[in-house]
Amino acid sequence: MADKKQNKRNNKNYDDDYNPRFKRQRKKVCVLCSDKNFELDYKNADQLKKFVNEKGKILPRRTTGACAKHQRDITTAVKRARHIAILPYTQN
Ligand SMILES: [Zn+2]
To answer: Residue 36 sits in a domain of what CATH number?
Structure first.
């Protein structure tokens, strides 16, 4: 019983650097902000495919790394592309 309590306390003082639950991630940089020449085009399917998964869903910001403003642009572009049947709404 006493040992159990001791273990619990030890786990709480777990060193952050060794805790696998809080792996330090490199901060993602927005592709559209970092590349000035990058022009988002809703008619360019190859470009937009980077922002959708294999099911055709738009990837979240935590995956694309885009900033709020550009994520909105991406979303609009993908939706436009879907409307003109360049990108699929869904696959399989
Ligand atoms: Zn951006």
So the answer is: 4.10.640.10
